[in-house]
Amino acid sequence: MAVLKVIEVLANSDKSWEDATKKAVTHAAKSVKNIRSVYVQDQSASVTNNEVTEFRVNVKITFEVE
Q1: Given the DSSP bridges, would you call strands 35-48 and 3-13 parallel, antiparallel or unpaired?
Q2: Rounded to whole angstroms, how far apart are CA atoms 8 and 16?
Q3: How far is CA 45 from CA 7, 39, 48, 51, 62, in A?
Q4: Under 8 Å between Cβ of 64 and 3
Q5: Rounded CA gap, 30 and 11, in Å?
Q6: CATH number for position 40
Q7: How many Cβ atoms from other residues are within 10 Å of residue 5's Cβ?
Q8: What is the C-alpha radius of gyration for the chain, rounded to an integer number of angstroms?
Q9: Beta-bridge partners for 32
Q10: Which residue, 33, 55, 58, 61, is the most exposed by fewest CB within 10 angstroms?
Q11: CA separation (Å) from 65 to 22, 32, 62?
Q12: What is the 3 state secondary structure string of 16-27?
């Protein structure tokens, strides 16, 4: 039987929500092993001078506990 744990991570990118999600997983992988999935819970963006300047995601990362 596998034991799974979920952590919540916030990340941002000036490119896209997808890039922000990838950054969240990459950063989490530095200290968490056996990542199984990522769930994008929320998306938002910052706007400056009528242009989107930053994409933000709130993700839940699931990993297996050894």
Answers
A1: unpaired
A2: 19
A3: 22, 18, 10, 10, 24
A4: yes
A5: 15
A6: 3.30.1660.10
A7: 12
A8: 14
A9: none
A10: 33
A11: 21, 9, 10
A12: CHHHHHHHHHHH
Look up residue 49 and give its two tokens.
């001078």
User: In this structure, how many other beta carbons lie within 10 angstroms of the beta carbon of residue 32?
Assistant: 17
Whole domain around residue 24: which residue ranges? Answer: 3-65
11: exposed, middle or buried (Cβ count in 10 Å: 0-12, 13-18, 19+): buried
- Type of residue numbered 25: V
pLDDT in tens, 32-48: 999 999 999 999 999 99
- Whether 14 has a pLDDT exceeding 90, the answer reads yes
Domains in the chain, number: 1
Looking at residue 1, its pLDDT comes to 84
- Going 16 to 36 to 29 to 61, the CA torsion angle's sign is positive
